[in-house]
Structure formats: structure tokens, C-alpha cells
């Protein structure tokens, strides 16, 4: 029986680097690149919403210096995938902590795959056997997500840090098994957490 590949989305401005990573992952077989974006534009965000990636590999250089700290949070708006930073630029400890893992251009192929596995495992570390019951705070965050609020807006509304909001969103994704905003919105509707009139279309 053939094992399903883990789907990877690359967000890397350099076509040479992106194609190199795609080639390395293709040779080893466990991870398969399903899409390559060169930036985070409105068109890219639409693709992020529609792609059910398991792992996103992003070069933080796609963000300008001022938006690097919020870049990871922005990705969580569109995808529940594990996010791995490709270190092509210097990153301080605070920036590194935002990601599920990091890889370097100088890592050998086996190391890259190992690091992707570890990042995916840490991203999915909460076992499904814990149950699907959401805490009251998670339900509150889910309602905000369904209403179309961004992480920063949710953080301001709930008086939380953006990192806490991201953690709650990861927990919601793990407990429900739903990675997309549209799927979470349907979940909220079906569980009577929100009514259709309060959803931003």
C-alpha cells in the first residue's frame, strides 16, 4: 500500500531556490511540492485559502523588516499547515519561535526531510484522542474566525496576544481536524456557535 505524500507549499522569492527544494523533496518522495508562490500578495492569499497544504516552507525575506514578526500570524489566517522558515536571512530567537521549525539552504536533503517531519510532528502534537470538545475560549476564537476577523483583530477583541490567538487556532484545528477558514465557519454554523447573518461574505 502506497503512503500518501505530505503536501508542501513553497513561498520563496527565488525561483532557483524554490526549484532546488522541489527537486530535493521529489527525489526523497515523502513530501511533494504542490505549489510555489514568490510573494504574499492578494492573489497568493487566495491560493493559500484554497490549498490544503500539510507544510508551508516560507523564506521570511518575502516580508519587509517591519512585518516579519507578524508574517507567521498572517499565514495562520489562511492555512492550518505547519510553517517552516527557510533561513536565507538572519533571524533572531523571537522570530524563530514563531515557526514550527526552520531549515537552511545548507542542510543536506536527509536533514531537510527530518526537520520537516519534526516540524509536522510538533505542529500536530496534540493527540486526537483528547477529544473534540473546544474550550469556551476556543469557541470564542472560532466565532471570531467565522466572522472573518484577522488574528490581530481577534487579539484586540479578546484582549490576548497574537501568539496566544495563534495557539488557540492551532488547538481548534487539531481538535476539529479542520484546516481552512471556510471549513471552520461551516463547523461553527453546524454547532450553533454562530448564525449565518453574522458571517462576513
Description of the structure:
The chain is α/β, with parallel strands linked by helices and 201 residues long. It folds into two domains: 6-123, Rossmann fold (3-Layer(aba) Sandwich), CATH 3.40.50.2300; 130-198, Orthogonal Bundle (Arc Repressor Mutant, subunit A). Helices cover 48% and strands 13% of the residues. The chain has nine helices and five strands; from the N terminus they run βαβαβαβαβααααα. The protein has helices at 15-28, 42-50, 68-76, 93-97, 109-123, 136-146, 151-158, 162-176, 181-190; strands spanning 6-11, 31-37, 55-58, 82-87, 101-104. The chain has a five-stranded parallel sheet, with helices on one face. β4 (82-87), α4 (93-97) and β5 (101-104) form a beta-alpha-beta unit. α6 (136-146) crosses α8 (162-176) and α6 packs across α9. The longest helix is centred in the middle third of the chain and has 15 residues, at 109-123. The protein is globular, with a radius of gyration of 17 Å. The chain starts with 5 loop residues before the first strand and ends in an 11-residue tail after the last helix. The relative contact order is 0.12.
Short account of what is shown:
This protein has 9 helices and 5 strands, in the order βαβαβαβαβααααα.
Radius of gyration: 17 Å
Number of helices: 9
**Low-confidence runs of at least 5 consecutive residues:** 126-131
CATH class of the largest domain: Alpha Beta
CATH superfamily of the largest domain: Response regulator
Report the sheet with the most strands, covering strand number, pairing sense and barrel closure: 5 strands, parallel
Q: Tell me the overall shape.
A: globular
Q: Could you say what the CATH topology of the largest domain is called?
A: Rossmann fold
Number of domains: 2
Mean pLDDT: 83
Q: Which structural category fits the helices and strands?
A: alpha/beta
The proportion of residues in beta strands is 5-15%
Topology order in helix (H) and strand (E) letters:
EHEHEHEHEHHHHH
Instruction: Report how far the terminal alpha carbons are from each other.
Output: 42 Å
The CATH architecture of the largest domain: 3-Layer(aba) Sandwich
| Number of distinct beta strands | 5
Instruction: For the largest sheet, list the strands in their spatial order.
Output: 2-1-3-4-5
Instruction: Estimate the helix proportion, in percent.
Output: 40-55%
